[in-house]
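User: For my dataset I need records formatted as: sequence, then structure tokens, nothing else. Please produce one.
Assistant:
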Amino acid sequence: MEGINMQDKCREEITVTHDIRAKIPSLIQRIVSSYNQDGRFHHIGPEPIPSRHAIIDIIYKTFPVLYPGYFSRKRLDDMNLHYYLGEEVTELFDVLSGQIAYAIRHDCIRFNQPCIRCEERSQEVTLKFVEAIPTLQETLSKDVRAAYEGDPASRHFDEIIFCYPGLFAITVYRVAHFLYTQGVPLVPRIMTEYAHSRTGIDIHPGVVIGESFFIDHGTGVVIGETTTIGNRVRIYQGVTLGAMSLSKEECESLRNKKRHPSIEDDVIIYANATILGGYTVIGARSVIGGNVWLTESIPPDTEVFLKKPELVMKNKNQ
């Protein structure tokens, strides 16, 4: 008798579950209808769009080529290096050119631009990227050395390449910046925003950064689109190189103009300093102390620090 009651109870629960699930199709139709309302964002239509997942995968396909042996799936030596890189670079070329083609075609169709032969253009850009790999690797080698020379906690180059979030963000930035300079839409920004989400370091792909750049610790660093940074610059966590807050009208008028500061060679910027404005220039070899707020230029060889606050110390038992 008890078994029969249990079976009846199970059948009742199954019926209730079925009745609840039967409401889902009408709710789906309601959601679909809402997509056509004004102000809603969606990408439903014939125009292609790049894949964020594919672009993140491209980042991880690029690292073994830029740092051979460190992120490879197999041990490399003189016997297999040529064959391994041949396979890796060819695969990278195919997937990167495909995503660039999607991005270019997306802009052409969605913004009604004249045809620029998306497939051919994407392969030309990707070939230029492959051609630039030795130069990128040389630049990144200087970034690694800058990290080693600027951080006594680093024991060797391998530790920096494997572990430092600053180098990861800089590597992704340098790849994205190359594509940005070639006029590739969307893909560079997806790359740097992925690095931002992983490291807490936000570098716009349009930033111009010189050689031997080092970000120590890195969490909370923000570097805006029109920032220019010279050679051998070192910055610490929480640094903002940003733009002044603008109204909606001002934002539109300055969209393609210089809005962020310029940092000259050999500058050091300590933690949580904020430097704002497109006319602000930090002169060469200057040092900006922690928590400093700057909206005006300073000449070369200048130290800027906040006045030491007055500390009050008392014995808690008194």
